[in-house]
Specification:
Radius of gyration: 22 Å
CATH architecture of the largest domain: 3-Layer(aba) Sandwich
Bound molecules: 6-O-phosphono-beta-D-fructofuranose
Number of domains: 2
Largest sheet: 7 strands, mixed
Mean pLDDT: 97
Structural class: alpha/beta
Number of helices: 11
Distance between the termini: 57 Å
Low-confidence stretches: none
Shape: elongated
Strand order of the largest sheet: 3-2-1-4-5-10-11
Amino acid sequence: MALAILCSGGDAPGMNPALKKFVDHVYKCGETPYFIYDGLEGMIDGNIRQACHKDVAGILHNGGAIIGSSRSKRFYDPAYRTQAYKNLRKHDITGVVVLGGDGSYNAFEVLSNEHPVNFVGIPSTIDNDIYGTEYCLGVDTALNVIRSAVDNIRDTASTFKRAFVVETMGRECGYLAAVTALASGAEICAIPEMCFNKKAAESHLKKEIAHGRKYVLAIVAEGTKMTEEIKKWLTDEIGMETRVTVLGHIQRGGTPTVRDRIMAFDFTVRAVDLLMKNKTIRQAIGYRNGTFETMEIAEVNAGHYRIPDNILRDLHYLD
Ligand code: F6P
């Protein structure tokens, strides 16, 4: 049996540990592992090769993905999807492990509606925004990268008595910003999932400043598009000299944390075992309440991720 793996969309720390476990586990099961290089683009172009142990030696500690990734416009065209399917057939690939986020899951749902493609998705995105799982590969590393950056910013903010607006990634999802705000004790947090209560924040901050607060940290999710507005508000209404730091792509890199490595191993073994046991499968694995569970891809793609209530509740300390 030939099984393949690909990384698609934004890379996430933990992808390399997943690739290593994939190769090791598939060989251990007596089957043949293949790499699809450069995501969906590579699948269209037939950039598919058998993987060997040497390919994955010494990669556990590296962020990114040694086989590359891509966001593919061509995949929207059914002709290219047929070409991609034919490339899988050329190598007699019977199942694919998909490391990616919702865009990749959607792409594989569409592909498997048109062609008999078996696949299992492993949620992999720093955004942590996939329905049906509490955890996506890479989010733990990203949170630690952001936490470290915010700790550094706090040093200079407190020295200069300034306010800082720190913008985090996450697309439409505020998970990274919300968890960072809690972990860093930020005074302000703005995420798309909650209405930012300027009035309450203003009276809270003004009271604290009157009692000696010297600096302010505001964590703002990119999805709110409020970074500049909050900067202006901190300057004009709160009266603080304010700087903006857009963290950008540093959040996507870095050596995967222990949690992201171990989770990558667990997800991957399950994905491979599922592909070997099932002749027809179009599912994604999720991690919920401490266990791994699978869901049909159509259900995952139709659902909408919600930040857990306890996190949203805890953020109300900012009100
Ligand atoms: O989905 C991961 C992510 O890093 C988002 O948080 C961000 O909005 C987007 O990708 C950036 O995409 P690109 O790397 O294509 O600029």
